[in-house]
Amino acid sequence: xxxxLSSLPPLLPSPGELRFWLDMSRPGESLVYHVGSxxxxxxxxxxxxxxxxxxxxxAQGERPRVELKQRRLGTGSYEYxxxxxxxxGFPRGS
Length: 94
Prior knowledge:
By secondary structure, this protein is α+β, with helices and mostly antiparallel strands.
């Protein structure tokens, strides 16, 4: 069976690609930054840990840049998503 575009796993960002996305994305845009079990995978892979840490840092503080979400795909498997927030003082979607 030939894989279709929708059946292929998403290309996950490196730390540098996530930084670029954080700087260039618009409010409301989303990016999947990990698929699997982030709790376990970050212990086994330095790049996964670096991407997860970067997403977490962007969601923290007085002026968070993103909101972190997850969607369950199956038992023990999730899609981890970062969604860009509007800067404070600007309406969402501007």
